[in-house]
Design brief:
Layout (H helix, E strand, L loop, with lengths): L2 E4 L9 E4 L4 H26 L9 H9 L6 E10 L9 H6 L1 E10 L4 E8 L2 E8 L2 E6 L4 E6 L14 H11 L5 E10 L2 E9 L7 E8 L6 E8 L9 E11 L17 E6 L23 E2 L2 E4 L9 E5 L2 E8 L1 H13 L3 E2 L17 E3 L6 E3 L4 E5 L4 E7 L4 E7 L3 H14 L10
Parallel strand pairs: 8-14
Antiparallel strand pairs: 1-2, 3-4, 3-13, 4-5, 5-6, 6-7, 7-8, 9-10, 10-11, 11-12, 12-13, 15-16, 16-17, 17-18, 18-24, 19-22, 20-21, 22-23, 23-24
């Protein structure tokens, strides 16, 4: 082995010089190799630092291209970060994690009917396949590949819903005609010189302050989405949700890459979305009038969704929109109690069976047990986040817990929940204790 000594005779102090078995020629050759390697490693950073050419595309034209980009194929690695502060609710652990943390996904997108997204965590991997319009789900460590049958107009969110292309198109499709759009400066994202689009909701009931999307101006493929909340605090205007590509290749993956190929020891099972309407025996609000839900709540009209199960209702337009659904008795009670334990605020909704008073069905009062006061959980609670609001109220003949949720202000949900309670007022409310 050669010896190591400090360089002298003009060499910078601290730069070692090898002598002995390593010749000056060998050292020179290795210096060239090292310099070349360093230069290659620096190329991506240099390219990323170069000015991004401005795009002349107009805001309406960029919006139209984004909405029409569903047929653009790609492969990539995306990261989504959401910070809502939702409590952990029973049977909704995966959703709570999805909406409060970082989700890393590899995605292969061939077409709207054929794609695959792998959600990668330290605990394992969860894969979602779109195979000819049929959805397949698989989790590492599982011995089953699950096929989801039937239409899915309303369902719980999944990791692929956070991918920039799907998220951007859904947001723009939800936006109303009165919402304002404008251009943003271009950015280089995952190697794409992306044009920016800013959307500001016009409605006063939404918690969304702005939606910012960057997309390839040529194809319309979205590469980053940011959603900011509306408010006046120190976090006002700060992104609550950021979904961006870290790596992206605009190539068309082969069919084998997006088709599930279970190992011989992996079985296949099928499942349907829960029959939400069956919770209340075919009558959404449980008042036995033949209508699933009131046609209007809190001043917002019910919106018809094709193929939507009658046990789920959507009210409002644009971003001033919320979903109403009944929870099964056991799940609803557990969710309500978990929300209370997590610090959710209790609500006193106007109407029979809610608030504080005396008699059956009140939050705190005197029941029929010999005049003894029997405390009961609050009949309604509010979960407030910078972007998503949730109200749960226990009411009605079937003693169900009704869940209201959306990117709307708590006032919108409270008013609507009060309207539902009032609509059911001709029933004697009786809560489980």
């Amino acid at each position: 082995m050669g010896t190591l000594r400090e360089a002298r005779s003009g060499a910078p102090v601290g730069v070692p010089t090898y002598v002995g078995s390593v010749s000056r020629g060998t050292w020179r050759r290795w210096s060239i190799v090292a310099s070349g390697t360093a230069l290659l490693c620096a190329i991506p950073a240099v390219i990323a630092a170069l000015p991004v050419p401005a795009s002349s595309i107009s805001a309406p034209a960029l919006r139209a291209r984004i909405l029409a980009s569903a047929g653009v194929p790609y492969e990539g690695y995306a990261e989504s970060t959401v910070n809502l502060g939702l409590p952990q609710l029973p049977d909704l652990h995966n959703v709570s994690t999805l909406l409060d943390g970082t989700t890393d996904q590899y995605v292969w997108y061939r077409s709207p009917a054929y794609w695959r997204a792998d959600d990668v965590t330290a605990a394992g991997e969860s894969d979602t396949y779109g195979d000819g319009g049929v959805t397949y789900l698989w989790t590492s460590g599982s011995t089953l590949l699950t096929q989801v049958t039937g239409a899915e107009p309303v369902r719980l969110p999944r990791a692929p819903d956070l991918l920039p292309p799907a998220l951007a198109r859904r947001l723009l499709d939800t936006a109303g005609h009165a919402d304002r759009i404008s251009r943003l400066p271009a950015r280089r994202i995952a190697g794409v010189d992306a044009a920016g689009l800013r959307l500001v909701p016009n409605g006063t009931g939404t918690t969304i302050g702005a939606v910012e999307i960057w997309a390839d101006p040529a194809s319309g493929l979205p590469v980053e989405v940011q959603i900011s909340g509306r408010g006046t605090g120190h976090q006002a205007g700060q992104p609550v949700l950021i979904s961006t590509f870290l790596e992206l290749s605009r190539t068309r993956p082969n069919l084998a890459a997006v088709t599930p190929h279970p190992a011989p020891d992996i079985g296949l099972t099928t499942t349907r979305l829960p029959d939400v309407d069956g919770v209340l025996n075919g009558d959404g609000d449980g008042d036995n009038d033949g209508d699933p839900f009131p046609s209007q709540l809190g001043g917002l009209r019910q919106v018809a969704i094709p193929d939507s199960p009658p046990g789920v209702a959507v009210y409002g337009t644009g971003f001033d929109r919320f979903v109403l659904l009944p929870l099964p008795r056991g799940v609803g009670t557990s969710a309500l109690n978990a929300a209370i334990q997590a610090g959710a605020a209790g609500l006193n909704l106007a109407g029979p069976g809610t608030g504080t008073g005396t008699g059956p069905g009140t939050g705190t009062g005197t029941g029929t047990g010999g005049g003894k006061t029997a405390p009961a959980p609050p009949p309604a609670v509010l979960i407030r986040t910078p972007l998503l609001s949730v109200v749960m109220v226990r009411a009605g003949f079937h003693h169900a817990v009704f869940l209201f949720t959306g990117a709307v202000t708590p006032a919108v949900l409270e008013k609507s929940a009060t309207g539902l309670v009032t609509d059911l007022s001709h029933f004697r409310f009786r809560f489980h204790r």
